[in-house]
Amino acid sequence: MIKYLIASHGYFSKGTKNFLKIIGGDSEQVYTLEAFIDNRSVSEKFEEVMEEIGEFEQLFIFCDLYGGSVAQEVFQKTIYDERNIQVIAGFNVSLVLDIVLKNKVMKDDEIEAAINESRDAIVYLNHVKQPTEEDSLF
Length: 138
Known about the structure:
Radius of gyration: 16 Å
Largest sheet: 4 strands, parallel
Number of strands: 4
Number of helices: 5
Order of helices and strands: EHEHEHEHH
Distance between the termini: 35 Å
């Protein structure tokens, strides 16, 4: 079974999971880690959520900020784990949605392709042609 962990500073991970529920339906395979909302360490919370996650064929961990303390702690905890764990930092919701909806074991090149495609989902709308009434915005 493919499982997913969204790890963030504060409640961003819960908001992302809520977004997934609205767009793609509820997924029992999506877990969250909210750091710095209480006195428990990221390490302690990570150990707890990994226990809850249990066994998996592949685990995707999405961390909110590349270089942030959450991503650093998660990466340190997983770097020597021999299970199929993929850690992605600096995610956007387009990427998470894409990978969760695929719901399959992905190879490194497929993950890289999904990351590259998700970058195209970031658009500065002020520089998009102004639509007329006949045009669709997108």
